[in-house]
């Protein structure tokens, strides 16, 4: 029996013996879509609908699943979907003059030609849904940020089938970027470094932002975790703003128009905390962005406030639509300790004098390429005493450092994000789930 077969058999026995608690894989978008479009039903009708779903749940788009996922998630997605047809995201018609794209035979043909590209994104999206479902059930006050981050990352690696410990394995699939766990006034780019002892508290507002990639196709999606219902209006404002950005996005749409729509929605909310009312402000110097293969920030920005950017979205592009709301100034600045890094796509060929920088660059090229990484990932690969070399790569313009981004002290920030594909025929919100 091979090592892989032995591991698979052990996983099956664990589920059978109750050592690992099974959780259901993501249910098809058809179900959640029906509820959203139909609105709230009457008590009897809603009850009947729920009973019907319990008795006979709808099949997933993309074919039958091979079984339930475990808790924590450890069964590779390819085993749950042996046909390799993964669930399709939420498909949305384009607006107005673009409506004809759905019936245009040439566009339909182009859509069919993209099947491999789409399936890689859909696989990453289903992994994201399954992992975040487990994370939402698991994350509780009293947990350390390191415990939360490693739980998410170990699950993503298991489901992609790439543990990232052998050279080049991370480039095939796994984490699209480090798990962001930004607390309260910190809006983005914070993940614990080695030795971090920060504990999640009941009063905290935590942004959970992680990416899954399959062959460099990065699914970027984020949500906000709170335990105190006082923050509910803040979360609702940001979720509504993100969905507005998704609705407005499309082929030939101007970035400025999307930003104006997002800002109008978010600023219509306010939140009362500690007896004081705060308007919810969009963080004006944070944006959504397009995504290229192995490149999380592709060069185009999607603003969340009105502006003059006349750049248009184009057919075939992939975008992360993300919005940030704040009870502070609505403007972030760099904080201190850096955890996120990424090799620059068009990095110059610089003669490095430090041997530690040369050696570290080889490790980065072979294990991450241009995918973002963090210090914990270098630790995991057995690297040590690398900070001098890493700083030298940053100073040489080969690697970018991404410090935590924070609003004023005492403020609270929230984030929601989805990845959308501008297919020739329809817009696909590939990371959409029944949770957000």
CATH class of the largest domain: Alpha Beta
Q: How far is the N terminus from the C terminus?
A: 42 Å
Q: Write down the domain tally.
A: 2
Q: Helix/strand-derived class?
A: alpha+beta
CATH architecture of the largest domain: Alpha-Beta Complex
Radius of gyration: 22 Å
The largest pleated sheet is described as: 7 strands, antiparallel
User: How confident is the prediction overall: mean pLDDT?
Assistant: 88
- CATH topology grouping of the largest domain: Creatine Amidinohydrolase
State the share of residues found in helices, binned by percent: 25-40%
List segments where confidence is low: pLDDT < 50 over at least 5 consecutive residues: 1-64
Beta content? 15-25%
Number of helices: 12
**Principal-axis shape:** globular
- State the oligomer: single chain
Q: For the record, what is the CATH homologous superfamily label of the largest domain? A: Creatinase/methionine aminopeptidase superfamily
In total, the number of strands is 20
Binding site for a divalent metal cation 1: 209, 220, 417
Cofactor: Fe(2+); Mn(2+); Co(2+); Zn(2+)
Biased composition (Basic residues): 48-62
Keywords: Aminopeptidase, Cytoplasm, Hydrolase, Metal-binding, Protease
Descriptive report:
- This protein is of the alpha+beta class and 436 residues long.
- The protein has two domains: 115-329 and 407-435, Alpha-Beta Complex (Creatine Amidinohydrolase), CATH 3.90.230; 337-402, Arc Repressor Mutant, subunit A, CATH 1.10.10.10.
- 34% of the residues lie in helices and 21% in strands.
- It contains twelve helices and 20 strands.
- It has helices spanning 3-17, 29-38, 43-55, 77-80, 105-113, 115-138, 145-160, 232-248, 255-266, 355-367, 375-380, 387-395, and strands at 21-23, 69-71, 90-92, 173-183, 186-188, 206-214, 217-225, 270-273, 276-279, 281-282, 288-290, 301-302, 318-326, 333-334, 340-343, 373-374, 399-402, 405-406, 413-422, 427-429.
- The strands form six sheets. Strands 3, 10, 11, 12, 13, 19 and 20 form a seven-stranded antiparallel sheet that branches.
- A hairpin with a 4-residue loop joins strand 19 (413-422) and strand 20 (427-429).
- Helix 10 (355-367) packs across helix 12 (387-395).
- The protein is globular, with a radius of gyration of 22 Å.
- It starts with a helix and ends in a 7-residue tail after the last strand.
- Residues 1-64 have low confidence and may be disordered.
- Its cofactor is Fe(2+); Mn(2+); Co(2+); Zn(2+).
- InterPro entries: Creatinase/aminopeptidase-like (IPR036005), Met_Aminopeptidase_Type2 (IPR050247), Pept_M24 (IPR000994), Pept_M24_MAP (IPR001714), Pept_M24A_MAP2 (IPR002468), Pept_M24A_MAP2_BS (IPR018349), WH-like_DNA-bd_sf (IPR036388), WH_DNA-bd_sf (IPR036390).
- Residues 120-330 form the Peptidase M24 domain.
């Amino acid at each position: 029996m091979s090592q892989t077969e032995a591991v698979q058999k052990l996983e099956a026995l664990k589920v059978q013996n109750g050592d690992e608690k099974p959780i259901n894989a993501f249910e098809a978008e058809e179900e959640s879509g029906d509820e959203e479009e139909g609105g709230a039903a009457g008590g009897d009708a809603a009850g009947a609908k729920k009973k019907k779903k319990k008795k006979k749940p709808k099949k997933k788009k993309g074919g039958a699943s091979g079984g339930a996922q475990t808790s924590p998630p450890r069964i590779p997605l390819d085993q749950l979907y042996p046909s390799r047809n993964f669930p399709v995201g939420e498909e949305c018609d384009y607006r107005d003059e673009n409506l004809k794209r759905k019936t245009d035979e040439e566009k339909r043909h182009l859509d069919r030609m993209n099947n491999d590209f789409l399936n890689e994104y859909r696989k990453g999206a289903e992994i994201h849904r399954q992992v975040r479902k487990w994370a939402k059930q698991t994350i509780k006050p009293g947990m350390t940020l390191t415990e939360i981050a490693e739980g998410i990352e170990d699950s993503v690696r298991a489901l992609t089938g790439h543990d990232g410990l052998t050279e080049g394995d991370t480039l095939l699939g796994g984490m699209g970027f480090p798990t962001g766990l930004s607390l309260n006034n910190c809006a983005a780019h914070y993940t614990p470094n080695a030795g971090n002892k920060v504990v999640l508290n009941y009063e905290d507002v935590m942004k959970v932002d992680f990416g899954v990639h399959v062959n460099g196709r990065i699914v970027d999606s984020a949500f906000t975790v709170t335990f105190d219902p006082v923050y509910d209006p803040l979360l609702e404002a940001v979720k509504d703003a993100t969905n507005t950005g998704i609705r407005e996005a499309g082929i030939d749409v101007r970035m400025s128009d999307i930003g104006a729509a997002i800002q109008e929605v978010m600023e219509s909310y306010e939140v009362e905390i500690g007896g004081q009312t705060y308007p919810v402000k969009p963080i004006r110097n944070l944006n959504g962005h397009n995504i290229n293969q192995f490149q999380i920030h592709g060069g185009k920005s999607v603003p969340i406030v009105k502006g003059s950017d006349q750049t248009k979205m184009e057919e075939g592009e992939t975008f992360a639509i993300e919005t940030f709301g704040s009870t502070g100034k609505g403007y972030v600045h760099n904080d201190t300790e850096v955890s996120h890094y990424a090799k620059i796509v068009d990095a110059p060929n610089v003669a490095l004098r430090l041997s530690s920088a040369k050696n570290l660059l080889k490790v980065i090229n072979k294990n991450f390429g241009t995918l973002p990484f963090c210090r914990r990932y270098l630790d995991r690969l057995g690297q040590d005493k690398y900070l001098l070399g890493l700083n030298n790569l940053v100073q040489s313009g080969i690697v970018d450092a991404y410090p935590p981004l924070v609003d004023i002290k005492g403020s609270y920030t929230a984030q929601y994000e989805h990845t959308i594909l501008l297919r020739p025929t329809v817009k696909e919100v590939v990371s959409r789930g029944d949770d957000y």
